[in-house]
Amino acid sequence: xxxxxxxxxxxxxxxxxxxxxxxxxxxxxxxxxxxxxxxxxxxxxxxxxxxxxxxxxxxxxxxxxxxxxxxxxxxxxxxxxxxxxxxxxxxxxxxxxxxxxxxxxxxxxxxxxxxxxxxxxxxxxxxxxxxxxxxxxxxxxxxxxxxxxxxxxxxxxxxxxxxxxxxxxxxxxxxxxxxxxxxxxxxxxxxxxxxxxxxxxxxxxxxxx
Length: 209
Prior knowledge:
Elements: E1 2-6, E2 16-20, H1 30-40, E3 48-52, H2 58-65, E4 70-74, H3 78-90, E5 97-100, H4 104-110, E6 119-122, H5 128-131, H6 133-146, E7 152-157, H7 161-166, E8 173-177, E9 180-186, E10 206-208
Helix pairs in contact: 4-6
C-alpha cells in the first residue's frame, strides 16, 4: 500500500515522503512521531540524531527539521537507502544528513559515537524482537555502553515478553500509543524530564488511540 508521510514541524514542515507499507516496513505513525519529539523537546536542537533501522527516514528527517545538528541514518535496504538520499537532496539538507548503508547488528560493533550527548532512535522490524532477540539484546547493550552521559536512547516496539527483556537493568520511561510502545532511557539520569511521569510495564496505558 502506498502512503504519504508528512514532516510535522520545523523548517521542513509539510514536506512529504512517499513509501510502500508492507510487513517488513511499518513507518512510525504521525501521532507517535509527534509524541516522540514532544517528549524529547529541547534535547533535539544542536544534537546529533541517530535513526537506526531508518526505513523511510522520516524520524531522522523530522529531527533535522527540528534543529538537530546532524542526522545519521543506518539502513541496509538499497531501495530505502536510495530514497533517504533523494529526500536529503530534494529537501536541501544533505549537508546535515549522513547515510550509512549497513546492517545494524554489525554496525554496532564498530560504531564510535560522539563523546557528547546524542539522541538514538531504534525501530527494527517488530518481528526482530521475537526472531532476533539475542541480537537485539547485544545491540541495545552496545548502545547503552557506548553513548555518552546525557544521551537519550529510544526503542520503538510492541508490548510483549521479548520487548520487556530488552528493558531489564534500567528504569525506562514507557509510553504506549495504540499498538506502538516507546521506551525512553537517558544515560546518567533517572528519567527524561517531560510532562508525563514514567510508567512500568505492569501498568502500561494507552496515551493516545
